[in-house]
Amino acid sequence: MNDLNLSATHAGQLSTSLKDEVITICMNKPKSLNGWTLDMMMAIKSAIQTAIESDAVKAIILTGEGHYYSAGVNLSSTIQLMHPRKLRDMIKEMNQQLFEVFILCPKPILVAFNGPGIGASVTSATLCNGIIAAKNATFLLPFSALGVPPEGCSSVHLGRLMGEQNAARMLGTEGWKPTAQQAFDAGLVQWLVDGENLREEAQNIAKSWVDNNQKREFLAGSKLDELLEVNQKESVALANAFLAAKFLHGQAKFLWKKGKYAPSVMFYSLLILRPLWALMLK
Fold first, then answer.
1. pLDDT in tens, 103-130
2. pLDDT attached to residue 240
3. Best CA proximity match to 246, nearest among 104, 147, 168, 111
4. Residue 280 to residue 33: CA distance in whole angstroms
């Protein structure tokens, strides 16, 4: 169903349905674990923007089809060989704009985790009005393992939301992956339900927001201007880290083990030639 009249390209990434002035945007690539390829990210951005502009929509639900909410950003599909300075600028702009989609959304938005979420799919959800999760959901932020700094305002916002100790466990070398129950107990998740009831309960919550004229708010007392500033700073740091030797080597090894040889060779090429192209970044 395509109640938002999305383009054919974007409709191929997700489905939408409108009920009681609540639009449900469902990522619909379960075979690829609803990974955030460039096409998926553009589809989500388009769907949310269209929902914002529609007078028929008063609240938004974002969820996923299948066993995963989202495996996060698919790096090999978004990074291409180009001039190093241009690549750094592209990464910075892509990351900043991705989270601005959520930060700047003026309508209340609820994220419904139907299963595990990884990386940006988790941090973006913390920037919404609330998170409801099925009991099989888990939450992973593998930034330390990837050799990159936090994104999605998590360097500031996550500690407020779930406590500095819990945030450090997720963002640091421990790489803590809380279950839905643990995330609920820590404050990362606001509602916990059985998986078969997720869509119904999410609809009930969003409908109550419509009935009560719920405003767009951020969790844990974070403010719009601050989040925009944090997102901008994190995006610069992330872009720099993406071109560091540790990240390039880690991605090359990871992709090679997965049998994705072409993108792996691209990262190995960037790594080998780094002493030369790094001079272009200055």
1. 999 999 999 999 999 999 999 999 999 9
2. 87
3. 147
4. 37
For residue 264, the model assigns a pLDDT of 82
Q: What pTM value is reported for the model?
A: 0.90
167 shares its domain with 44: yes
**Residue 2 reports pLDDT greater than 70:** no
Question: Hunting for tokens 């405003």 — which residue is that?
Answer: 215
257/172 same-domain check: no
Is 163 inside a domain boundary?
A: yes
- Give yes or no for a contact between 22 and 58, defined as CB atoms under 8 angstroms apart: yes
- Cα angle at 40 between 38 and 43, to 5 degrees? 110
Measured distance CA(261)–CA(263) in Å, rounded: 6
SS3 call for 111: strand
CA dist 94 and 73 (Å) reads: 11
Please give the residue range of the domain that contains residue 88: 8-243
Question: Could you give the count of Cα atoms lying within 13 Å of 179 in the half-sphere of its Cβ?
Answer: 5
pLDDT confidence bin for 1, thresholds 50/70/90: very low
Residue 1 lies in a domain: no
Q: Is 41 helix (H, G, I), strand (E, B) or coil?
A: helix
CATH number of domain containing 100 = 3.90.226.10
Strands (E), the chain: 14-19, 22-27, 59-64, 109-113, 117-118, 130-134, 139-140, 191-193
pLDDT digits (tens, 9 = 90+) for 214-273: 999 999 999 999 999 999 999 999 988 877 777 778 778 877 887 888 878 877 887 887
Q: Give the CA distances from residue 20 to residues 2, 50, 57, 206, 278, in Å, rounded to whole numbers and listed in that order.
A: 16, 17, 8, 9, 54
Cα separation of the two ends of the chain: 49
Question: In the prediction, which pLDDT does 157 show?
Answer: 98
Q: How many domains does the chain have?
A: 2
